[in-house]
Amino acid sequence: RLLETDSKSLRSVNGSRRNSGSSLVSSSSASSNLSHLEEDSWILWGRIVNEWEDVRKKKEKQVKELVRKGIPHHFRAIVWQLLCSAQSMPIKDQYSELLKMTSPCEKLIRRDIARTYPEHDFFKEKDSLGQEVLFNVMKAYSLVDREVGYCQGSAFIVGLLLMQMPEEEAFCVFVKLMQDYRLRELFKPSMAELGLCMYQFECMIQEHLPELYVHFQSQSFHTSMYASSWFLTIFLTTFPLPIATRIFDIFMSEGLEIVFRVGLALLQMNQAELLQLDMEGMLQHFQKVIPHQFDSGPDKLIQASYQVKYNAKKMKK
Q1: Sequence-distant (≥ 6) Cβ neighbours of residue 211 within 8 angstroms
Q2: What sequence ranges are listed for the domain Rab-GAP TBC (predicted)?
């Protein structure tokens, strides 16, 4: 459906340009330059979506670069589905059947739903549509993957998907993320993969920020105290949504590497302050200061993340 409306609006944009020979945006408006940029990015993303198979094969690098700059809001639903290849999954047809079944995790899911995006209009009212569809997707997943069932934290990811797309599509994307993006391993009951991520991240700190590493050790300030939620919710419980969603765009395109990059960039930017603080002070800093450092926009953080030296071979080792 989205693909159709996107291509229709793209045709109408292109059509009106051809017919009138001028831009759709009135050039007298003060923000006409910005509108031109928005319009151009609309047309560009419209083309990418319509010619996805070709573009992905031939222009993978350019698509990555564009995603790093942020996917326009209107295109997120379809582009996320395309990035993780979730647009034609057979499991989608089982969704309505799954909802008729009973899951052993229902009580747990119900309990947590009210705590997921409690400030967000779509989710904050008890028994609202948002809470209902969030419950549906979480329940359906817990029935498909009995080993993981329901894991706290995953509702933030599903909630973000539901802000962009209908529940069946959100369910398919979530299944893909769990299978192909290491998330299922992170959410398994043993959480061994989370331990591995913490270890890898700690090694990065030791290598790139040795002074901070020693300070953390001397204060018994363990990586898991501040970084577990970064990995489990891809920063959705750390930053305001506009910033977390931009990081999530890149996660959809490049996987968990972005969490390591952003995490290390945050520590680099805050190293001077953290070195002055004890354990309690550091916890406060992570909870109160860091979340609002990029309220003016995430570009600075994303640029810093790509200055971080990330060695995939070393991480694997």
Answers
A1: 271, 275
A2: 70-255
State the burial class of residue 81 (Cβ atoms within 10 Å of its Cβ: 0-12, 13-18, 19+). Answer: buried
Q: Which residues contact 90 (CB under 8 A, 6 or more apart)?
A: none
15 CB contacts (<8 Å, ≥6 apart)? none
Segments of the chain with pLDDT less than 70: 1-38
What is the C-alpha to C-alpha distance for residues 31 and 222, in angstroms, rounded to an integer? Answer: 48
pLDDT digits (tens, 9 = 90+) for 131-157: 999 999 999 999 999 999 998 889 999
Q: Which of 274, 171, 179 is nearest to 221 (CA)?
A: 274
**Residue ranges of domains in the chain, CATH in brackets:** 90-180 (1.10.8.270), 189-314 (1.10.472.80)
